[in-house]
């Protein structure tokens, strides 16, 4: 049985009455960390995407 590895960029933002989660698949953990660092360094992607919340991180998951 082969092992599969998945990487995800996870952002949890506080909102009224709870939190909002964004889980985005990434091609690798290295790419995920680069994207997260880029978002943090620029304060976000624009008006529609504010700065990365404190709850943002990359997660690697393996199966098998």
Question: What does this entry look like structurally?
Answer:
- Helices cover 22% and strands 44% of the residues.
- It contains one helix and three strands, in the order ββαβ.
- It has one helix at residues 29-42; strands at residues 4-15, 18-26, 57-63.
Write out key terms for the chains shown.
single chain; about 60 residues; alpha+beta; three-stranded antiparallel sheet; 1 helix
Structure summary:
The chain is α+β, with helices and mostly antiparallel strands. It has one helix and three strands, in the order E-E-H-E.
Indicate the proportion of strand residues. 35-45%
- Counted by DSSP, the helix tally is 1
Order of helices and strands: EEHE
Largest sheet composition: 3 strands, antiparallel
Nearest-integer average pLDDT: 82
Task: Please give the alpha-carbon distance between the first and last residues.
Answer: 7 Å
* Low-confidence runs of at least 5 consecutive residues: none
